From TrEMBL:
Pathway, per record: Metabolic intermediate metabolism; (R)-mevalonate degradation; (S)-3-hydroxy-3-methylglutaryl-CoA from (R)-mevalonate: step 1/1
Entry superkingdom: Bacteria
Cited InterPro entries: HMG_CoA_Rdtase, HMG_CoA_Rdtase_bac-typ, HMG_CoA_Rdtase_cat_sf, HMG_CoA_Rdtase_CS, HMG_CoA_Rdtase_NAD(P)-bd_sf, HMG_CoA_Rdtase_sub-bd_dom_sf
Entry keyword annotation includes NAD: yes
Database matches in SUPFAM superfamilies: NAD-binding domain of HMG-CoA reductase, Substrate-binding domain of HMG-CoA reductase
Gene3D superfamilies: 1.10.8.660, 3-hydroxy-3-methylglutaryl-coenzyme A Reductase, Chain A, domain 2 (3.90.770.10)
A GO BP entry: coenzyme A metabolic process
The protein's name: 3-hydroxy-3-methylglutaryl coenzyme A reductase
The species this protein was found in: Falsiroseomonas algicola
Amino acid sequence: MSLSNLTSRISGFHRMTMEERLAAVAAFAGLDDAAVAQLGRSGNIDAHLADHMIENTVSTIAIPVGVATNMKVDGRDVLVPMATEESSVVAAVCNSARQCYDSGGFVTSVSGNLMIAQVQLVGVPDPGHARIRILEHREEIAAICDGCDPMLVKLGGGFRDVEVRVVPSQGGPMVVTHLIIDTRDAMGANTVNTMAETLAPSIEQWTGGKVFLRILSNLADRRLARARAVWPVEAIGGAAVRDGMIAAYQFAEADPYRAATHNKGIMNGVSAVVLATGNDTRAVEAGAHAYAARHGRYTSLTTWEVTADGSLAGMLEMPMPVGLVGGATRIHPTVQACLKILGVKTAAELARIMAAVGLAQNFGAIKALATVGIQQGHMALHAHNVAIAAGATGAEVEKLAALLVARRQVRPDVAAEELAKLRAG
Ligand SMILES: CC(C)(COP(=O)([O-])OP(=O)([O-])OC[C@H]1O[C@@H](n2cnc3c(N)ncnc32)[C@H](O)[C@@H]1OP(=O)([O-])[O-])[C@@H](O)C(=O)NCCC(=O)NCCSC(=O)C[C@@](C)(O)CC(=O)[O-]
Ligand SMILES: NC(=O)C1=CN([C@@H]2O[C@H](COP(=O)(O)OP(=O)(O)OC[C@H]3O[C@@H](n4cnc5c(N)ncnc54)[C@H](O)[C@@H]3O)[C@@H](O)[C@H]2O)C=CC1
């Protein structure tokens, strides 16, 4: 049962105990006992499963899963599981979403579920001619691709288009075929790779050239997710805050050194949801950064503007090749529980929520940067890690973290000194 009429706007969620938080999430998402038990176990992956997931397994590594509150996406309240090792990332999303909840939250869209597979052909003296010869075989190409995955075709996916480009290279012109495939609710890498490999001998036969690489492109620019939101100026602390945030965006837009950090902040949010849902973080990261450089200059993935009424409007558009099936998504029990929390039925819905989280994360970072600076909020939360690293245990952790924040010196040497004082009474 999904209790979608419940609100994600939960004040003070961070002050609850872990058990209370899990109970609240379970009530919100209508989780069954098995999902609750799975999320409640901290070392929650079975050794046998781990041994089968990758090669040469010797252990597992646990990363915390936090839940972002206050998110409203396309009119639906949603709690978002985020797997990350970095403090303040989840808090930033909660805080940013809180400030646009009353103005409607996030509006999202996707361009489709289209993935691209590339087939690299070399050794043709007449590349332009070869290009046209490949395009003449569109119907055969469609049949070969769809023949690789009848199940996908049955689900409404499969071959959509073929494009062929002549790409100049140091070794001479290459003829690069792009297969455009609708992979529905799968990320689709394995699916499209199989198609590219199966098609390759035919391309060699049609052109007389030699095929080398047959692999998807991680620049998944046919699978874009978009999010936008409007923050009323009074909800964010006034026009000076807004203008500082616009200046922060303009810096990222103009300068690749800043854009890399700006986009890293966006990926703090996106990658955390990608990981919590068992998707491929490297695929999404690679796509994001390639997309940010698509015009030949690396720039911001987000855009920020002032609306006619003086509000702050933010937009994010980026490739989001993620799935609900395939890869590790169906086999990891915690991933399954996280997907239940999200209550998504399609890969597109998941991609849309990820875009909303990325935008929220960017808002939180640039607001902090344009006002009090990143250290105040981030280091206050990171102080817990510094306290633990210094050896604090139990109730000492909170006490020592508070002391470090009060001294405005969140450093290992100061932590060691304060811990010794604390213990000496
Ligand atoms: C950290 C905050 C949110 C504090 O912000 P604040 O205004 O001091 O927060 P507050 O104590 O007034 O609380 C307001 C709300 O924030 C949330 N909140 C507040 N505390 C928590 C918490 N402990 N756990 C969960 N949620 C929390 C929560 O929703 C809370 O509402 P409430 O529930 O109390 O009604 C803010 O300073 C912030 O967003 N900072 C940015 C943090 C950030 O971006 N971190 C990423 C790591 S830094 C980095 O890697 C990226 C970067 C920055 O380099 C990217 C870039 O350069 O662009
Ligand atoms: N460069 C890259 O990004 C690469 C990534 N990978 C890995 O590939 C994996 C993802 O590949 P996939 O093809 O997604 O996985 P997959 O091959 O495990 O599963 C996809 C299959 O699921 C079936 N299916 C069942 N229900 C479906 C539905 N509702 N919608 C769509 N398909 C459905 C389809 O027949 C499809 O062939 C990830 O683990 C990724 O890490 C692999 C190679 C390269």
